[in-house]
């Protein structure tokens, strides 16, 4: 079978230690190949069941528990709980077991519910009906029962149930239209092609007679890559082999459009489909706040161990005195006296249990709830809703809300992010002659564009032929599809001047704009029919060109070509692409004039493409076919062989001209970038566009100002001088100006310092990031970083997707470890979005892949301003207070317990009752801080948007720095000492009630606890700036709840307990006048230092935010006074 000689390496190949087959054979319709053909080897493949759920009914409990106890805090509390169960500890196991059980249960219910929803969605997909051809008939079966080799019938607007190879369609040319919105988000119609030898099988019976096998690669996740071969057994001895590529592969999740029906064979099913293989879990991103929390947790763990160790040592020092040993009736035996080490260890564990509440387990639950509930504020924001898309902002992960308030570097794509990706044909140039039609925008002719404006349109007779050849080239060199009906997907479109007009459909907005531009210049592309492209020339005569080959566009070549045969039999190869990929392949034409025009357009910010051609002889075409067929039939390294074939074919061109298309700047993009600069963020633009086009966009968007000194680090400069010299020269330039000035204060907005902007291209970046060779130059990376950090803005052009991620990774790993944000709208931005600390996708025209892989998604770039300056600011302020407050209130809670040990002989006697120990963090003090962390607004949202510099006040995690943490900790220690010693000295040796009853230890503990609860709650009330009825209800309601609970606990619930130590304690305390006076006095003393500190700091060293707050309060007071005066004057006049 010579047909397979070029791919003799097919078959079963083992790689490494794995018995892995690198290709699979699929028998269409499960038919055995004819006798004498290749051996029939049935293979087992998974069914079409999709599983996106994480748990099953049987493994949910063990698997979920295992995952939860992998968190250090949960594991720590589990150990404490087990210690309480095993040894005799001063507190009940319930005190730590109940909060832990609550945390684990709430988390398990949340995760279980989310997984149940996934199960529900899976079942809906797995049970949907699918039409399969069996024995010449169409039968209906559930999607999950579909098998590899089944022939499937799919009708219009149905979704493909698995990955399919297209066999035939209802269209005569064997094509079908597909939208892949659920895969890569592109809503534009893509064209797929049936195998030429099977497209005639149009009925169930005909398809059932088809005998063929498909050999293809094993499943892999790349959506745009597929290599295979179909062998069709007809009456002849040898099968016909045809190549299969991505243009024949219909992916699961895509939808059939504008095609009545298709027949296709299943090749990948279930979890082996490309969509399922792209279910990759993103790497876990951790915010700076979470890292601070973990650091604080370690500090408090050290404090806890220190407390337990000190108390254990002091206990044995205390008991070293014989008089202070066990009483005479409980003297230790000799055996007990010799067990010092074991007893000391159990005492240490007992103290650990007693003080373990200093580690706040409930903080983790509160933080989770705050992040989850707080994320809804982004989704609910009407200002971030886009009427055109009919969508608002999306939150894909709530773990990074506060990180939005810490961004230092913003990396943004250009096309579709800063610009609209809404192409408008501006002009074209043929041999230096310029043609400018009236406005044509995004494929739609604008109203009033009835005539055509031509500039310099007198090229002469020979030039006129070349001009028409150029127009034909643009009309033919594309992948645009034509929709001639009045409706596209049920939406009426294409009505122009009262008659039906063609609608152009393409995955590229550039192509639609170009074809519409040619239409306005007199050449109209009509359709592709029977493999012939039809165009209408200026004389309204139809010209037909047979489409022989399409060399598709790819991002590496940056060009595409078509080979066509005219009606007179002449063969043409038309090519269009980026100037950098066309000019080196030109052998004749007016290159200088066209290049000058291209550079002029690029400076104006227009997207340019060059157009070239060459004539082919019959021998040339045969050679082209040979190169392409040998490359396309290869199963291994097909992409590489195709690239080599394209390189051989696409050369020796004659230049025709160039086109210019404008991609307009998005609404308020310049204002957003200016605000980000004022907020202290560095903005980098990473784009694949040419330098001149990208630079023009950067000027328009105010990334660069006219006063900005542009530093270039490009291939052109690297050719003129070595990279080493160029880098050191730039380094000297920026560092000389910077001098002793701190980087943080450096800003392009200041007139005192020279503002620098850097432009670098992809090729130079690769050289900069290349590891230093042995004996070679130094490390350029550090010098490059130093230059970049001194520039207010950086433009990276001609960037590959992977290079975008490398840039982000480079900045992330620099010594300052800044917080980075990446924003983009296309599939080429996904790697950058996943690499950055925060990834934001734009719901753009390049698809939704970026939006789905991001942490947050917004409709437009302008929404980034509010997301960072308002939402990010609020989130950070709220969660910072939450974390510091939690540690503060736990220090206040446990430090009196530590002090109490010095007065009870280190006997591990608890100061507080078990109920208070258990409910302090769960009920008494949890709701006020949760509500604060959800709705606090320390300053008005409008002011935050108007004054971006306020963002600098919270930069670099300023509210969770060690000095702030130490202040909160010492404040907690001070308040705890006030509670304990204040109560101790105020009521020492005094009668407590009128009947002469003495002060008891449980009453003392209850008094301390009461002052504690009121102090920490009022402390939060003092920190609250934004008061609503909900704040009042929760803050005063939580205090009322504590009082009511204490009354019930001591007066009603006590008979049901196995101890009665709290009987009537709280009521007796409230019945005492001195107790009321003592509580009020201690509250004032404990809150006074914090109030004084705030007043002094605001008066002497106010932050920008505090100045704004004061200014706002003055304005409010002034407005109130004016209102009162106006009311008074009106009443007097009456």
UniProtKB/TrEMBL annotation:
Listed binding positions for ATP are 413-415, 511, 553, 576, 607, 687-689, 798, 804, 828-829
GO terms under cellular component: early endosome; endoplasmic reticulum membrane; plasma membrane; recycling endosome
Indicate the segments forming the P-type ATPase C-terminal domain, all copies.
851-1103
Membrane topology per the entry is: Multi-pass membrane protein
Which of UniProt's keywords are assigned here? ATP-binding, Cell membrane, Endoplasmic reticulum, Endosome, Lipid transport, Magnesium, Membrane, Metal-binding, Nucleotide-binding, Phosphoprotein, Translocase, Transmembrane, Transmembrane helix, Transport
Q: Which residues form the P-type ATPase A domain?
A: 130-192
Return the EC number: 7.6.2.1
- Which CDD domains does this chain map to? P-type_ATPase_APLT_Dnf-like
Principal EC category: translocase
Catalytic function, reaction form = a 1,2-diacyl-sn-glycero-3-phospho-L-serine(out) + ATP + H2O = a 1,2-diacyl-sn-glycero-3-phospho-L-serine(in) + ADP + phosphate + H(+); ATP + H2O + phospholipidSide 1 = ADP + phosphate + phospholipidSide 2; a 1,2-diacyl-sn-glycero-3-phosphoethanolamine(out) + ATP + H2O = a 1,2-diacyl-sn-glycero-3-phosphoethanolamine(in) + ADP + phosphate + H(+)
Asked whether the UniProt record includes Transmembrane helix among its keywords, one would answer yes
Question: What Pfam family is a match, any one?
Answer: E1-E2_ATPase
Kindly list the GO molecular function terms attached to this UniProt entry: ATP binding; ATP hydrolysis activity; magnesium ion binding; phosphatidylserine floppase activity
Cofactor dependence is on: Mg(2+)
Binding of Mg(2+), residues? 413, 415, 825, 829
SUPFAM superfamilies per the UniProt record, alphabetical: Calcium ATPase, transduction domain A, Calcium ATPase, transmembrane domain M, HAD-like, Metal cation-transporting ATPase, ATP-binding domain N
Membrane-spanning residues where?
72-87, 295-318, 348-367, 915-935, 965-987, 999-1021, 1033-1057, 1063-1088
Subcellular location per UniProt equals: Cell membrane; Early endosome; Endoplasmic reticulum membrane; Membrane
Q: Which residue positions does the secretion signal occupy?
A: none
Q: Where is the active site?
A: 413
Q: Which PANTHER family does this entry report, sorted A to Z?
A: PHOSPHOLIPID-TRANSPORTING ATPASE IH, PROBABLE PHOSPHOLIPID-TRANSPORTING ATPASE
NCBIfam families referenced in this protein's UniProt entry, alphabetically? ATPase-Plipid, ATPase_P-type
How it assembles, according to the record, is:
Component of a P4-ATPase flippase complex which consists of a catalytic alpha subunit ATP11A and an accessory beta subunit TMEM30A.
Q: Which family does it belong to?
A: Belongs to the cation transport ATPase (P-type) (TC 3.A.3) family. Type IV subfamily.
Q: This chain belongs to which protein, by name? A: Phospholipid-transporting ATPase
């Amino acid at each position: 079978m010579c047909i397979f000689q070029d791919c003799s390496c097919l078959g079963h190949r083992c790689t490494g230690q794995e018995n892995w087959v690198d290709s699979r054979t699929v028998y269409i319709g499960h038919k055995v190949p004819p006798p004498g053909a290749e051996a029939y080897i049935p293979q087992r493949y998974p069914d079409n069941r999709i599983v996106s759920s994480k748990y099953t009914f049987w493994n949910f409990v063990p698997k979920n528990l295992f995952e939860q106890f992998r968190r250090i805090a949960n594991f720590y509390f589990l150990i404490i709980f087990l210690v309480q169960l095993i040894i005799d500890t001063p507190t009940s196991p319930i005190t730590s077991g109940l909060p832990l059980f609550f945390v684990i249960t709430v988390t398990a219910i949340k995760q279980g519910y989310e997984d149940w929803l996934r199960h529900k969605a899976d079942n809906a997909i797995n049970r949907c009906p699918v039409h399969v051809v069996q024995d010449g008939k169409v039968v209906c079966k559930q999607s999950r029962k579909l098998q590899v080799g089944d022939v499937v019938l799919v009708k219009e607007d149905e979704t493909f149930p698995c990955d399919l190879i297209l066999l035939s369609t209802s269209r005569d040319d064997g094509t079908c239209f597909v939208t892949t919105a659920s895969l890569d988000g592109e809503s534009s119609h893509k064209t797929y092609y049936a195998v030429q030898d099977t497209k005639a099988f149009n009925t169930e019976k005909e398809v059932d007679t088809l005998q063929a096998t498909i050999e293809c690669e094993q499943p892999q996740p790349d959506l745009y890559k597929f290599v295979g071969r179909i062998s069709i057994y007809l009456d002849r001895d040898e099968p016909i082999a045809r190549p299969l590529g991505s243009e024949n592969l219909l992916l699961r999740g895509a939808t059939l459009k504008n095609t009545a029906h298709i027949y296709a064979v299943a090749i990948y099913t279930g979890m082996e489909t490309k969509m399922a293989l792209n279910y990759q879990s993103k790497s876990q991103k951790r915010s700076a706040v979470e890292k601070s929390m973990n650091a604080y947790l370690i500090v408090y763990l050290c404090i806890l161990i220190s407390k337990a160790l000190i108390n254990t040592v002091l206990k044995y020092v205390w008991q070293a005195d014989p008089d202070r040993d066990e009483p005479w009736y409980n003297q230790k035996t000799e055996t007990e006296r010799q067990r010092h080490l074991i007893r000391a260890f159990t005492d240490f564990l007992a103290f650990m249990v007693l003080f373990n509440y200093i580690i706040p387990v409930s903080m983790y639950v509160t933080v989770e709830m705050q992040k989850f509930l707080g994320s809804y504020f982004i989704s609910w924001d009407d200002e971030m809703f886009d009427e055109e898309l009919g969508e608002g902002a999306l939150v894909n992960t709530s773990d990074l809300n506060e990180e939005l308030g810490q961004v230092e570097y913003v990396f943004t794509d250009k096309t579709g992010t800063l610009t609209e990706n809404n192409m408008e044909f501006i002009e074209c140039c043929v041999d230096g002659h310029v043609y400018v039609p009236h406005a044509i925008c995004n494929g739609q002719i604008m109203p009033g564009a009835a005539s055509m404006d031509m500039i310099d349109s007198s090229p002469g007779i020979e030039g006129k032929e070349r001009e028409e050849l150029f127009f034909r080239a643009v009309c033919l060199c594309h992948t645009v599809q034509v929709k001639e009906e009045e409706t596209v997907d049920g939406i009426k479109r294409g009505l122009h001047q009262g008659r039906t007009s063609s609608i152009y459909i393409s995955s590229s907005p550039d192509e639609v704009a170009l074809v519409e531009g040619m239409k306005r210049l007199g050449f109209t592309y009509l359709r592709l029919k029977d493999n012939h492209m039809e165009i209408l020339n200026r004389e309204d005569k139809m010209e037909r060109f047979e489409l022989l080959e399409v060399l598709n566009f790819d991002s590496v070549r940056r060009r595409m070509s078509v080979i066509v045969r005219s009606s007179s039999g002449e063969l043409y190869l038309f090519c269009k692409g980026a100037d950098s990929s066309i000019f080196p392949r030109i052998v004749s034409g007016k290159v200088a004039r066209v290049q000058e025009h291209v550079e002029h357009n690029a400076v104006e910010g227009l997207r340019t493409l060059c157009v070239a051609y060459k004539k082919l002889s019959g021998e040339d075409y045969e050679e082209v076919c040979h190169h392409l067929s040998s490359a396309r039939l290869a199963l291994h390294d097909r992409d590489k062989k195709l690239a080599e074939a394209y390189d051989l074919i696409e050369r020796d061109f004659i230049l025709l001209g160039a086109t210019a298309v404008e991609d307009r700047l998005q609404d308020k993009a310049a204002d957003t970038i200016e605000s980000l600069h004022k907020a202290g963020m560095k903005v980098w633009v990473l784009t694949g566009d040419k330098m001149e086009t990208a630079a023009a966009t950067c000027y328009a968007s105010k990334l660069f100002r006219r006063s900005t000194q542009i530093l270039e680090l490009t291939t052109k400069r690297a050719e003129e001088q070595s990279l080493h010299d160029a880098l050191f020269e730039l380094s000297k330039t920026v560092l000389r100006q910077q001098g002793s000035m701190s980087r943080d204060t450096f800003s392009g907005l200041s007139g005192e310092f020279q503002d620098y902007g850097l432009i670098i291209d992809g090729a130079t970046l690769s050289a900069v990031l290349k590891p230093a060779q042995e004996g070679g130059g130094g490390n350029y990376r550090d010098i490059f970083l130093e230059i970049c950090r001194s520039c207010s803005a950086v433009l990276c052009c001609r960037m590959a997707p992977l290079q975008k991620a490398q840039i982000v990774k480079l900045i992330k790993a620099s010594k300052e470890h800044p917080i980075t944000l990446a924003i983009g709208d296309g599939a080429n931005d996904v790697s950058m979005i996943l690499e950055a600390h925060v990834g934001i996708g734009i719901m753009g025209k390049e698809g939704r892949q970026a939006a789905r892989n991001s942490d947050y998604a917004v409709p437009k770039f302008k929404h980034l301003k509010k997301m960072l300056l308002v939402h990010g600011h609020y989130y950070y302020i709220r969660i910072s207070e939450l974390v510091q407050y939690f540690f503060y209130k736990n220090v206040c809670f446990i430090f009196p317990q530590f002090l109490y040990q010095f007065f009870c002989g280190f006997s591990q006697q608890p100061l507080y009752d078990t109920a208070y120990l258990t409910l302090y963090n769960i009920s008494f003090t949890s709701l006020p801080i949760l509500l604060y962390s959800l709705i606090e607004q320390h300053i008005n949202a409008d002011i935050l948007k108007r004054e971006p510099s306020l963002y600098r006040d919270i930069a670099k995690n300023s509210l969770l720095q060690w000095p702030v943490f130490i202040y909160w900790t010492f404040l907690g220690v001070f308040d705890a000492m006030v509670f304990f010693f204040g109560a101790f000295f105020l009521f020492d040796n005094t009668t407590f009630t009128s009947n002469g009853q003495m002060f008891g230890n449980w009453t003392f503990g209850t008094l301390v606890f009461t002052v504690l609860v009121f102090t920490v709650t009022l402390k939060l009330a003092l920190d609250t700036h934004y008061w609503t009825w909900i704040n009042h209800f929760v803050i005063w309601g939580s205090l009322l709840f504590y009082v009511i609970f204490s009354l019930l606990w001591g007066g009603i619930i006590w008979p049901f307990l196995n101890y009665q130590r709290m009987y009537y304690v709280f009521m007796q305390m409230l019945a005492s006048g001195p107790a009321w006076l003592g509580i009020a006095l201690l509250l004032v003393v404990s809150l006074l230092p914090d109030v004084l500190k705030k007043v002094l700091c605001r008066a002497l060293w106010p932050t920008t935010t505090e100045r704004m707050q004061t200014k706002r309060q003055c304005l409010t007071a002034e407005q109130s006074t004016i209102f009162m005066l106006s009311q008074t004057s009106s009443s007097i006049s009456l």
